[in-house]
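I'd like us to work through together how a protein chain folds, taking it slowly. To get us started, please write out a protein record for me. Go ahead whenever you are ready, and we will take it from there:
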Amino acid sequence: MKFSLTLVLLCFLAAGSAQASNDRRECKEELRKLKAAFDTNYTSQNHHGYRRAKASSDNEEYRKCASQARKARERAERDANL
C-alpha cells in the first residue's frame, strides 16, 4: 500500500516537472519571437511588454511569461500593420 502511494506521488512529481520544462521552453521561445518583432517595430509600449514578460520569467512564472510575451508580440505585429 505504501509502495503504491509512493509510486503515485513520484509520477505526479515527474509530470509536474515535465510541464514546468515545457512552460520554460515556451517562455523562452515567445521572448525570442518578441525580441525579433522589436527589430521591425520598436516602441516604448513593446519594450514595456518585453520587460513585464522578462520579469515573469525571472520570477519563474513561465506560463505567465509566455502569455505576456505572446500578447506583446501580437500587439507589436498588429501595430506594425496599421
User: Anything to note?
Assistant: The chain has one domain: 21-81. The longest helix spans residues 2-40.
